[in-house]
Amino acid sequence: MTSTGSAPGGKGHPRGGLFCAIDACLLAAALASAACGPTGPRSGALPPGLAPDSARIPNPLAVYDELGLIAGDFAFPAVGRVAYLPGPADSTYAIFALSVSNSALRFRRADPGFLARYNVRIVVGDRVPPAARLETSERVRVASFRETARRDESVVFQGLLVLAPGEYPATFEVRDPASGNGLSVRRQLSVPGFGPGSVSAPLIVYRAEPRSAREEPPALIINPRATVHLDDPAPLVYREALAADTAVAVLELLTAGVVTLTSTDTLAGATPLHAAVDSIDPDYLAPGTVTLRARLPGTEAADSAVLVVGLAPDWIAADYEGVMGFLRYAGTPDQLDSLRAAPPRERARVLRTFWKQRDPKPETAANEFFAGYFRRIQDANNRFANPAGPGWLTDRGAVYVTLGPPDEVTRHLDTREGPGQSQVWLYEEDSLGFELRLVFFDPAGTGDFRLTSDSHRVFQEAVRQLYS
Question: What's the domain of life for this entry (predicted)?
Answer without folding.
Answer: Bacteria
